[in-house]
Design goal:
This protein is α/β, with parallel strands linked by helices. Helix content is 28%, strand content 30%. Helix 4 packs parallel to helix 5 and helix 6 packs parallel to helix 9.
Amino acid sequence: MKRYILIVVISIFVFLPLLSQSTIIPYHQRNDFLIASPGAFKFGLYGYDNPALLAYVRQPDILIRWSDKTAHWSEFKRWGLFMGLPHLGFGTIHEQSPLGHCAEYSLSFAGGDRTFSSGFAYNWTRATTASLDKSSLLTFGTLARPNDFISVGTQYVHAINTKGWEVIADVAFRPFGNEKITFFTEYVFHRTPQLRKDMWSAGVVAEALPGIRVSGRYFDTKTFSVGFEFSLGRIGIESQSHYNNSGAYSYNMYGIRFGAYDRNVLNKIFPESPKFIETDLNGPIGYQRFQLLDNTKTLTSLLDLIDGAKNDPSISGIAINTSGMETDREKLWELREKLKEFKSTGKKVFIFVDRVDIDGYHFVSVADKIVMDPFGTIALQGYVMGRTFLKGAFEKIGVGYDEWRFFKYKSANESFSRDKMSDADREQRQKIVDGWHNIAMSDICAARGFSTAQFNKLVEDEVVFLPEQAKALGLVDSIGRWEKVKEMVKSETNKKDGFKHILMLAKYNEPYDAQWSEPPKIAIIYALGVCAMDEGITARRLVKDLQAAIDDTRIKAIVLRVDSPGGDALASDYIAEVIRKSKGKKPIIVSQGFVAASGGYWLSMFADTIVAAPGTITGSIGVIGGWMYNKGLKESLGLSTDLVKSSSHADLGFGFRFPFIGLGIPDRNLDEKERTRMETLIKSLYKEFVEKVSLGRRKNFDEIDAIGQGRVWTGSDGKSNGLVDVLGGLETAIDIAKERARIPKEQEVTLVEMPKKGLFDFGKLTPKLFGIETQITKDPTIEQLKFRLQHNGKPLPMLPLEDLDLVKME
């Protein structure tokens, strides 16, 4: 905006010396190309009238209008050219008379949204004779549309090189809250040395059929006009007839518009031959992306794309290239469910695949046609959850570990204290992998027509499939590369080019003028990664974003997307407490991603509704602790430590630090008194955890304790035992948020994502060959070990180290 102001200021100083003392032409005469008041008819004159209207311009558009007021229509004695971009406009009006030629120019800018916007314009004139010269003008405009029914615009026009000003107020009303019919009126206060007068007009604009608009306007001078516009999509034609105060025909105005997409009845009478859209899923699929140099596809954008294609009558299918796709199984499940919804409308899904495991095949099995690369492979290896146990390694290098485990299933520290899984951990993990297996088996069998026995035979006896075998067994339909998919689309659509560009979907092109005011806003707040104050979910910052969304009256509901294995109870409680205190202010819905357990469930427990996918890892209501200490490592490295202390426990946690990587290990284990105290703290924190969940889930302590004890559950099991309310994904959570906020299901909403991603990932600039620390500390295992050592001895509501790797925290 500062740049725009600078341009205007420069323009004023450039043109001001060229202008002589001149007149300010009255508003109605100056804007005689207007069909209705600015706020009543589409976008007015693209800022030439009220610059605030530029906030409603969605795509570049050009409008040419001319009249036969002073000469035959084909002579173009008076014509105007108006161009609009989002928030930026340019206009010019040229008139040729016996006295010479006069050209008026306008440059306009706007800021704001569809509920309230403001803008300013600079208007100047170039004339061949002084008698045709007109004053340069500065215009300041506002546009308020608090709802679908009312529009209020104001303008203040100030003459720069002569005395005079105007104030214009226009009000428009839509009784049905849409473009079908609009009533309007405007009032003008004109004050110049030549003329002091108030003027007004009133009228109506009707659009009974898409893009066919009829207007009528009456002026205080007892003149009136009747207009007609016919839209052909990206081209429109229009005409307006003017009548004098005795009702006789006076002159005509003509117009042609091209550029931006507009509603048009021809789409219904002569529908476009349906085509496919294509999307390439190569690269990571995450939650957010940096603005520059980031090839991440976001979950919300992909869901929005499929939804737009589903509702667009010009689309008959979607073709997807999965080569190089990177994401977790929960996001794939959400996308698969959206494609099932897409197919339910009778539209087709074609998918190309090269190398996929069982998660990838589960996703692509939704397709009507699967094309497999001639050198591709499908691996239906089933599901596994395993662990690496460090107890033996710790013993060899001289590190001791004391596990503080007081709840049956809370197994987070088994990696340090055991050399194999405990029976309880094996039980809960087996239940989870069986759940994942059953989800994939059920969906794949339904999509590809397999029986359960056939599927299990593929998994148990074959496992890996090359293209010819995959086709013979019915896993895929064709063998070829992406060009094969294009051929199938060509055959399906009977067109040489059967694809329509994504950006041409109606969802991304429909003009904003059909609905006044900004759509209701729903905030999506992401809590991703380990629960910590200044990393992972960054609770210290996230709590501010959450509170800001709660306090913002424009945001009608909040969806908290949780993809976290837990961590620091303090960080989790920072967020949970804000949710608890905000109960009833506005709907807060939790959408659980791949992992929302332990501290991740702590984040969820006070939500109005908890939504999880069937395969989500949830629950793990429990607390665990442990103590890592020196048991000979320091001495074997030739290191020594020494200290003085003021009390018997002051040296608890004191020890040596590894050079380069910043990891430290205490010199000693806890004594009996200290360990007893830690047991009390862990059990106390667990009791508080269960009490909070009981409060949030409206259950008693014993009910939560029975499904707690640190046990993890799938989303499906969580739905059965009451930890989860609804099975679904992020879109399901948004739909519930809309319903709770009393927003109609078909109503468009604006999603506000928080926290905001930055411009660029500066971590990519870190030198890869710059010392040992850069190489070692960026290893995920070392990062996780550092986190544990930083929280050594602290009770943690957290999953095992291995489960941190499950979450794609993008």
